[in-house]
Every structure is written in structure tokens, then in C-alpha cells.
Amino acid sequence: MDRNRKWVPGIGAVLLILLSHMTSALEVPLDLPQPPTITLQSPKDYIFDPRENIVIHCEAKGKPSPSFSWTRNGTHFDVEKDSKVLMKPGSGTLVIDISGEKAEAYEGTYQCTAHNEHGTAVSNSIVIRQSRSPLWSKERNEAITVQVGAFLVLQCRPPAGLPPPVIFWMDNNFQRLPLDKRVSQALNGDLYFSNVLPEDTRSDYICYARFPHTQTIQQKQPISVTVLNNSPEGERRPGFMLPLGPTSTKMVLRGDTLELECIAEGLPTPEISWTKDGGELPSSRMSFHNFKKTLKISDVNEADAGDYRCTATNNLGIAHHIIKVTVKAAPFWVSAPRNLILAPNETGILTCRVNGEPKPKISWFVNGVPIENVPEEHGRKVEDDTVILSNVQSGSSAVYQCNASNEFGYLLANAFVNVLAEPPRVLTPPNQVYQVITNSPALLHCSSFGSPIPTITWFKDSQTAIKDGDSYVIHENGTLEISVAQLLNSGKYTCIATNNLGIKENHVFLEVKEPTRILKQPEYKVVQRGMSAMFECKVKHDPSLIPTMTWLKDNGELPDDERFEVDTDSLTIKDVTDVDEGTYTCIMNTTLDQDSASAMLTVVEATPTPAIVYEKPDPPSDLELTDQTERSVQLTWIPGDEHNSPTQKFLIQYEDLLHQPGVWINLTEVAGTSTTAQLNLSPYVYYSFRVLAQNRVGHSDPSQPSRQYRTSPAAPDENPSDVQGVGTEPGNLVITWTPLTGFQSNGPGLEYRVQWRQKDMDDEWSSKNVANVSQFIVSGTPTFVPYEIKVQALNDYGSGPEPEVVTGYSGEDFPVSGPDSVQVMVHNGTLAEVHWEPVLSPSVRGKLQGYKVYYRRERGLHETEMDKDQQDQVLTFSGNRSEGRLPGLQPYSLYSLFITVLNNKGEGPPSTSKTFETPEGVPGPPSFLKVINPGLDSLTLEWGSPVNNNGRLTGYTLKYQPVNNTNELGPAKVMSFLANDTTVTLGNLNSSMLYKFYLSAKTIKGSGPIITEEAFTVMDTTRTQPPVETGKGPTEPPHPTSPITQSLHPPFHKAPPVGPAFGTVNTSVSEDSAVISWEYFGHHKNVYVEYIVENSKDDWKKELVNSSHSHMLKGLKPGTSYKVRVVARDPADPTVHSTDEVVVTVPAVPSRQVDIATQGWFIGLMCAIALLILVLLIVCFIKRNKGGKYPVKEKEDAHQDPEIQPMKEDDGTFGEYSDTEDHKPLKGSRTPSNGTVRRDESDDSLVDYGEGGDGQFNEDGSFIGQYSGKKEKDTHEGNESSEAPSPVNAMNSFV
């Protein structure tokens, strides 16, 4: 509860103490009269699923119980008249059954009102909207074709749903498309390719939209993408696809998440990085997504406004985009109005503190009615965001509403004013018992209510009054906190609540328990298979608490196996197997705390003769203290078993039960042969000792602690360390030190005596005793003077040793003056030296850090107006300097400067301003140099004056020289020009020659940097065209020469070429084609070869050749003459350039076709064959008439020819061929397996006679192929072409 009392403004001259009780969660017992309070309401924006009922929550409490009513769209909503609407009994919650109804009819803005006789509370305006998942509009996606390396965007454009859908891309198999640095999905759902690859070709790019409320998914029509590789895009610098342009803007509301994205194209794929101009990115609220293309900043605040720069980088360059972010804010609470419980005649304040951007408008309501429309009430005063209620009376209870709104939203808060006169009551149950562990915090509650607000006081054991401070804190709600509970804090506590109407008390009890500690932890075990393993876990706990021991294996439950036996303080595993290996943990739980420890079990193979096992020693035992004095004691013990490894040493530790209970600290070590140790002790310590033995295996477990030994208190033996004195503000001195620990205090009542005095002043020491702090502030000190300081420890038993004196300085202030006698020595046009008189130490008022020289260029000496764009330049000279150099000055300029003094506090006032001039220097380079109007033997140069003359310009120097084809420079010529010359025409130059030009400006100080340019003179095309020689092969075309070649400057518009664009044209012909080559000097992009049959009236045929300088015309008719010309056209230039027409004649091919039937050798061969057949027939006829048999069977056996059918055995006649055998090929034929005869393998193929194969036909269908001879095929050549190489093929391979 808030017990702050506030002063009431503007009520006469008397300041009244406010007796109001304000808290953010004020609870009034429900048996007392009170206005309604809204306890549950639906969110401001409620999107409902049309398949489910609409439930609009409105719950409230009050005494008497409130009644509820609703408005919809600003008018009363009669719930009872609508059978589909049900209001829950005892509640304002509406349940609307929309089954079978149009859900849209119930959309609107709803507001709930809760009313009883003491006031009216209202809910937020709740906007009810139906969720929507509209269908995708019908569309037809055109197939996309793109070249390799180009960028690509696939648009999704989902339907606008409520709420908006979630977008993702998949294929026909419902597999998500992989996203990476190259391929990414933007926030709007579009799919971006920084550059496309051949594997991006697919026909099923599908965008899906998932609508979360209705759990429906809709898909866009698939998009087909084909990536071509016939004209790939080359590597290029990055460029931004999203957002477009160099800058964009983004507005975000405070508290929302800022999402910025940059998607870049380029090849190679660019990397994206983010920075904020003039600031740092908030690393704790920032995250990157989508391969760093999206930057998200959560919980945005005003400091997040500014310029965010995204940078795209690849190895060819960098691109930047700046997103200007502005942060607006819907209203948000600074201090919301809180419920007031007031007694009669008390005064209270309701405050409604909000902020926002733009600034919200605040409106007050009383019981839901604007405050300006309710009757005025005496004692009520409204001041913007504050309502003051003075001298309230019974019956004036009400609910006040504060509404704060701007264009981005609103806040509405209810706060009741309940006027009651009620004696105190304690709400915390009586006789409650609180239990805590030692050294833990304890909270004892005393929740109360009353009007006027009761005051709370606490007593321990009904006697000792507890004050706020030391180890106790009394909170505003009455809770008593003990920050570190000790055993002595146990007992009975009484809280008393009091106001002017009565008194009420309540008793609670605190029990402080000992902590649970594992004294003997389980140890690492190596056990042979089949043996037993035992883990011990001995625990110490508070006797009043019931402990529970739990064993775990590998952080899970123990196996359900009878081999595992759990005892009170041990775990035994019998007949160990390999599966028993693992980590075993014992956990000791009580109702207040727990402790745990773990050990590993390793199972090894059983060995018949175990080797000697070396283990760490057993802990020592029987610790005894003797020869006790104030500062020493003798400790003795009995060593434990050494386990085959001799004890090397004993480590003695102690626990300070008074200052650091539970912490064991190493005290000393003794040899392994000793069993006693003389221990030096400190005063005021509750000692407990233990001993650990160490051998080469390790330390033993600690021994059991010895009995406690308390040393008597004494004065401190030492003083605080690290004493320092440093002023943080003018007029103070902060003295700090490292305090003593409780162990170092040597006794109770530890304090520090802080002493100080001004150095070298012989003043008395000022002194102040402080406790429980580590610093002390001395106020009212002079500025930056030395002080002597010392800090001494003391307690109830005396003071520590005399402390040493340290020197510190009081706080610094700004210097009071600047340096005098500022002088400037100018060395040259770019360097000056400044001198000044060092300031006196008193005026520095601190430690001198140095001097700052501010200087700026006012104007050039040839200028009359000041340069307002120039910024001050600053140089800092550390230490007690009196001079410094100013480099980087601009020649022939007027400068001003002043100097300030710098100390740790800051800068002092400036010195008097000093001006100086810099002498002339050499000028900068001319601003540009370009070549115009190139001719055969002349060129015209134009240039611009330097940006920085750095003096009075006296003229220009031009040097130029020719450059031959091997890039060797010819003799140079030098020309001079006046300062006002900016152009010159150079004559008597060689035609078609490259010249290099060097131009520099000059002042009286000399010439400045040169600027260069190169250009060609126009080629001399007046020479006679050489005749076209038919039959020669193509010549290598000369490289085109541009008339003008720009160097380092931005490109200019090209002038039309001077003279012909074409040079020599050469031709060579073959049987059906011609190769045309030419010289070309123009800039046109579209170049064509046009041809027509000589003396024909047909249109010219043309073939595009672009940047080539030769072209082959194919398919020409043998024996035909053609007219050929080369033409250049450009859409941006109406002029058409053409060569002279050249006549090309294709030679006729003599016919090689021979009528074989008329050849003599053929007739003779046919006659010989016919005669041979006749002789055979005669021989057969003669043998048959003699009765002989033709030895067919023997012939068949001899030849074994599968095509010769056997004779029938019954009559000796020839057998008939079967149907299946009709399809068999003749032996030795090359008929394919499919039964067809390939044309190129047929013996009668026209290819062999030059009439088949790849003969070519002209456009009119005439045959223009040439004859070819058939060559022999061997088994290795197979079906390869037997065509002889033609001249056309040879020409193609040449070209």
C-alpha cells in the first residue's frame, strides 16, 4: 500500500497533507461497500471464427454486485430481444450463437457497463470482426524466360485476409522451396532471385497463403520459369530490388517490432550488412533474419528512430540504401489512475499521466459520463491530467474514467473513489508460521485495510519494537523483511494496525532452520564385473525437517532391479554388469531446501590376480584442540589409511561460523609425517577446523570438523586499503576505500574514522566516523585543491594502527579564461603555426589536459562573400603546450581561429579570434578536358577552369603527342594559353591517328596536376576502293577505331561520324556460298548484309550481323550473280550508311551424272553374265537327261548356308520357303534389325550418285548440292558419313 501523503495545490495558504492511500492493486474486502471494478474483458480487437460462437468477456466485482449493460456501435444493445445472444448469469459476458446466421450482422464496436449504487465502470471499446480467408483472384501466369545471371522477382500478391495470411512457396510435391542468400522471400511474400542459375528452371513455383484463424491454405497458380544460357548476364555490381531508390521511409509504433528489409541483386550474390548512421544497433533487442536481409528490432522506443543503412557488397562494388525510420507512439501509461479509499473529509488526487507521439488528448468521465456533463461538485477540481477531490463526504463514491487517445490508439482506465469510515482490520491469517533456511531472506506479511489508512508497527516477542533499518525492512504494504535470517531471528512477531477508529494486532511466527548439507559425498568407483559397488551419501540436516533421499542414474530413475539396494545413507549395486556403468546422484530433499552430489561407476573386466591399487588416503580422524591462547591453538589428529601411497602433506582448513558460515578456507599445510600443527589465529572468529590428507593420487575427503573455538575480540590490526580522494563535482571531495571484511574487523561495532584537511594549509584535521559504507563525500571544498586524507578502522575494542596519509584533489570546474597573445606564422599555402601564452594554473580550475584550436576557412582571397558551408576544424594539443601546427590548409584563403583550455571537466571560454591569410599555391587540375569536332587533320579541345584556383590563375599549359599502333609515344608539342582561354583547335594532325593530351593550370607558384585525354582523328576514306577479287579467301577485318575515346570523365553524347562509316569490302565465293568482309568505323549497333539476284526486281534480302566484320551468305545458286552491300542503321539516328554495291558470281558446277546403260564396259559385263548363265543351264539339262541327281544335299552340307532350304527326304525335291523365312535378310546384307533399309547404306542409294544425303536446295526449290563419291567402309567406321568434304564445309571450318 502506498502511504505517501501529497500536498494539495491552490487551497489557500494552508498546505494540507493528503491522507489518500494509492496503490496499483488496491483491494477492498468484498464485504464492504464499493463501486464496480472491471476484472476481465476481451481484447480491444477481437477477430472471431465464423464456425464458433462469439464470446465477449466482461466480468466485474463490487458491493452490491453490479448489473451489466452493453452498447453496440454507440447505441444501447438490448440483449434480451435477440434470441441468439445470451448474457451469462452474474456476469456481463455475452455468448452469441452465430450458427445458421450471418456472422457479419454481429460485427461492430461493443462496450460493457457495470453499475451499482456506488458508481459505474466501463470496459474498453471492443471491435468485433469476422476472420476472412478470401479466394485467390483468377489469373493466368505467363511463362517467364530469363537469361542465366539475371535477377528475377516472382510476385505472390495474396488476397487480403483477416488476419493477414502467412506466405510460403512450395512445389507441386508440397516441398518447401529452399531459400538462401541468393533466393529469398520478402516480407510481402514475393520471391526474389539475386541472380538465376540453370537449376532454377522449373514449372511449379507456387505461392501458398495460410490463414491462421480458419486454418485454411490457398495456392496461387503455378509460375513457370525457364533459364536460358544463350546470352548469359555477366558479373555486375550490386543493386537493390527492394526497396527501390537510394532512400525510403518507415514508420513504426513504440513497443512494436521494427522490420526492415533490403534485397539486392548482383553477380556474385551480394552480402548484406546493416548499420545505423550516427548510432549503434541495439544488440539486446536486435536480430537478423532471411540471411541478414531482414533486420528486426523488438520493443521499439524513441531512440530507435534515425537512418538505417543497408549495404550490399560483392567483389565488384558496393551499393547503399538508407531507410529513414520514424517512431510514433500510441498512448502509453506513465502513471495510470489508481483506486482511492478516502475517509470523510480527506483529500485525494487522481492522476492520469500518459505519453505518446503525437501527444495524447486526455478526457475525464464520471460513471461513464463526460465530466463536463455531470453536475459540478464542491471540492472537485480538474487540471488537465489531474482530478483533485477535497474534503470528500459520505455518499460521494464514484468511478472515474480517464481516456487518453491519439491517432494511433487509446487508453481507458477506471479508478473508483470509495468514501468509507472503517476501523483497521488485518487480512493476513493469524498465527501463521514461516519457515526459512539460515542465511536466506524471510518475509513476514501483515496485509491490512482501514479508512483512514492504518499505520503498521512490528514487535518481536511482544516486547522489542522493530525499526526500519539495519537487518530489517518494513515495506509499504506492511510486510517485514529480514534480509539474512539467522537462528537468533526465530520467534514470535506481532504486527499492529492503527487508525483513528481503532487498533488491530496479529501474531506470526518465524522458524529459522539449519541448511541441508551432504557431509560425505559418493566417490568414483572402478568395480570388476560381478562384484558389488557401494556409494555413500551422508547428510546433515535440521532435525525438525523430514528429509527424503533420492538416487538417480544418469539423471533418470534407478533401474527396477533387485540388485539395487537403497539404504538410509548409501546405495549398493550387487553383481555389477556393464549396463550399470554411469553417473549416480544422491539428492537429499526437505520441505525448504535440498543438496546433491554425484559419482561415476566404471565396470572393468575381472582379473584373476589384481594389481596393487593406489587410492587417495582416508580422511584423518579424532581432531583435538590443545594449548589454547588468544591468538593460537594446537591441533592434533590421527591419519587415515594411505592406500598404498604415502601421505605427502596435510592441508588444514577453517570455517568462520560468525562471518562466513559454510565456507572453508585454507589456513596452512604441514608435512605428511606430522600429526600436529600450531595455528595462528585472529580475534573475534568462531573457528572450526578440518584436515585433508594428500598423496600422489589426490586429496582425501575432509575430516569431520573439530569442536568450535572462539577467539576474543580485539582492536583492528589493519586499516582499509586503496584509499583515494577524487572530486566528482565542483565543491566536493569523494573519499573512497576498500572496507575490511568481517574476518578482518577483529570485533563488533566496526567503523571507519575518515580524516581530511587541505594540504599545505596547517589546518586541523576534520574527522567523521562512518559505518557500513565505503565512501564519504566532503562538501563545500574549494575548486581543485589538494587534500591530505587518511582512513582508520576502529571497533568497540579500540582503533587500528595509525593510517598513512594519501593526497587527493577536490572537484574540478570549467576553465575561466582562454589563452592570450595568440599569434599565427604562415609557412606556406597549406601549413601554419600558431603560438599562444599558456594560461595560469588558477584559471584552469582543474588538471590541465591541453588546448583545443578551432579554425575554419572563411573565404578565398579572390572571393568577396564568406563561405557559409565551411565547418570548424579542431586540433587538440595535449599537455602544457604553447604552440602547434595547422596542416592541410587551402592556399590563397582567409582563415579565423580561436583557442580554448581543456581540463577533465571540459573546455573553457574561447580566446580572442585571430585571422590569417595563406599565400598562393599551385592550382588544382582543370575541371574537365574533352575533344569535340574531330576532323581528318584537326581536333578541338575544350576544358574547364580548376575547382580550386589556389591563387590567381595565370594560364594553362597543353602538351600533346601522337601514339602509334604499338602504344609508343611520338614527339611532344607544348602550348601555353591565357587564363581566360578554355578552347583550342589543333591543325596539321595526322589522319586516323591517336593523340594523347596533357593539360594543367598554373599560377605564379607553378603548374598544378595534369588532366589527360586521348582521341583519334577521323580516318582518311578518300582513297580508291580496291576491286573485289573473286575466289580469294576472307581477310581478317581491321579493328574498328572510335573517333573519340573518353578517359576518366563521364560519357558525353557522341557526335555523328565525320566521313564514311565503311572502308574496304572483300569477298570470296564457293560453290553455293559467299563470304563478305568489310571495314567499319561507325557507332551504329545494327549492321546488315543485304543481297539480291543481279537484274532482279525482288526486294533486297538482309541478314543481321551486329558487331561482326565478316559474314557468310549460304544457299546461293551456282552460276548466279548477286549484288551485295553492307548497311548500318540505328534507331536513334535517321541516317543510313551503306557500302557500294559489290557483284558476286557463284560459279556453275559441271554435271557428274552418267547414264550407265550406255557405257561399253557395262554392256560387255551384262553379255558375259548372260552367256555364263546359258552355259550352266545347258549343263544341267544334259545331266538331268542322263538320269543323274544334282548333289543338292552335299552342297548344303558343304556350304552350311542358312538361307538354302534342305530338300524333302520323301521325294528329293526342293523344299518351299516358309513365311517366316521370307523376312530373313540375305547373307552379308546390312539390313537393320527392324526390317528397314537405311538410305545411306543402300547399294542403290542416290547418295552414291550425288542425288541423296544432305543436298541443299535454294529458296525456289532448285537443287544446288554437289556430287560426292562413295568411299570404302570398314568395320570400324560403321554408319559414319561417307560424304567427301565439300568446299562449303571447309569454308565453315575456316570461318
From TrEMBL:
Residues 36-123, 134-224, 238-326, 331-418, 424-511, 515-602 form the Ig-like domain. SUPFAM superfamilies: Fibronectin type III (SSF49265), Immunoglobulin (SSF48726). Residues 701-711, 1281-1295 have a biased composition (Polar residues). It comes from Lates calcarifer. Residues 1191-1211, 1269-1279 have a biased composition (Basic and acidic residues). Its main location: membrane. Interacts with SHTN1; the interaction occurs in axonal growth cones. Interacts with isoform 2 of BSG. This is Neural cell adhesion molecule L1. Residues 619-714, 719-813, 818-921, 925-1021, 1056-1148 form the Fibronectin type-III domain. It is found in: Cell membrane; Cell projection, Growth cone. GO terms for biological process: axon guidance; brain development. InterPro entries: FN3_dom (IPR003961), FN3_sf (IPR036116), Ig-like_dom (IPR007110), Ig-like_dom_sf (IPR036179), Ig-like_fold (IPR013783), Ig_I-set (IPR013098), Ig_sub (IPR003599), Ig_sub2 (IPR003598). It is a single-pass type I membrane protein. Residues 697-728, 1023-1059, 1191-1295 are annotated as: Disordered. GO terms for cellular component: cell surface; growth cone; plasma membrane. Keywords: Cell adhesion, Cell membrane, Cell projection, Disulfide bond, Glycoprotein, Immunoglobulin domain, Membrane, Repeat, Signal, Transmembrane, Transmembrane helix.
